[in-house]
UniProtKB/TrEMBL annotation:
Keywords noted in UniProt: Acyltransferase, Transferase
Record bears the keyword RNA-binding: no
Stated name of the protein: GNAT family N-acetyltransferase
Lineage: Bacteria, Bacillati, Actinomycetota, Actinomycetes, Kitasatosporales
The keyword Ribonucleoprotein is assigned to this record: no
Domain N-acetyltransferase: 26-172
Highest taxon of the lineage: Bacteria
Amino acid sequence: MTRSPSGAQGPWSVAPEPFDSPVAAALWRAYYTEVSDRWYLLHEGRGTDPDELEREIAARTGAEFAPPTGVLLVARHDGEPGGTAGVRMLDATTGELSRVFVRADLRGKGAAPLLLAAAESAARDLGARRLVLDTRGDLVEARALYARHGYEETAAHNDDVYAEHWFRKDLTG
């Protein structure tokens, strides 16, 4: 068994991963495919067009998670990549949390809280005093997760066309 960032023993580990590694690319593809299909099914009754999917995955490389102003974390379950969380600094004291994702087959096994704790620690290491994030209304599980872990819903901090809810958490208290 490995030790998680919280110190608990278990099958999970969380560590930084290069944003352009094969592991990061595979998890990004899984994440984007799921949230894109979910949006299109809800709004248009269809899955994502494959050409659009490839174009959007390629366009968002994750370079914003490169050091020294960002980090991409990967959670592994018994050594197998199972989830991600990314942090990028928006300014000297504000980090943005994104790409929080756990593979569907591993949900409910404790990865999301570990990823959040690791992302918050990484954000502090980057100099963040607060974390902000945005999410969509249909991602009710994500909104509940953030609320359970001390994120408070706030006014918009960006104009992302898909963002419907914005959250903030003070990391100094």
